Structures are given as structure tokens and as C-alpha cells.
Amino acid sequence: MTDSFFLAGRFGAATRLSPKALRLYAEQGLLVPAHVDPVTGYRYYAAEQAGRARLSQGCGNWACRSPESPA
User: Fold this and answer.
1) Per CATH, which fold does 5-59 belong to?
2) In sequence order, what are the residues at sequence separation of 6 or more whose Cβ sits closer than 8 angstroms to the Cβ of residue 21?
3) Which of 5, 6, 20, 62 could form a disulfide with 1 if both were Cys (CB 3.0 to 4.6 A apart)?
4) Quick one: DSSP state of residue 18?
């Protein structure tokens, strides 16, 4: 991976999102990792996703979903 990608832990620390929150947002389609390693399952996020991470964090309620995610 290049320098513009971060492991979930590092990305979460930079955006103040817990690993649990990152998993939840990925499951809901709010913040999907840019890449998932098929062998290790490690989740990588792009630096450009930080803004979306902050928006997802600000959402803070179960009614907030992306248009693509099922109700």
C-alpha cells in the first residue's frame, strides 16, 4: 500500500473513530474501506476519506444512513 492509505487503527486514531465505529460504518455503507486485503482482512482507508469519517461521526444516530444503504 502507498503512503496515502492507512490501516484502520491509524485512520481511526487520526479521525477519532474507534475500531468498533469503523466496522459499524463499513457495515452500514457509510464509510467503506478503500481496500481490504484479501489474505489478512486488514482494512485500509484513503486519506481522502477523513472528511467523510468526520461526517459519519457527526451523524451519531441510527436514522442517519447513506442513500445506498438499506433501511
Assistant:
1) Multidrug-efflux Transporter Regulator; Chain: A; Domain 2 (1.10.1660)
2) 12, 56, 57
3) 5
4) -
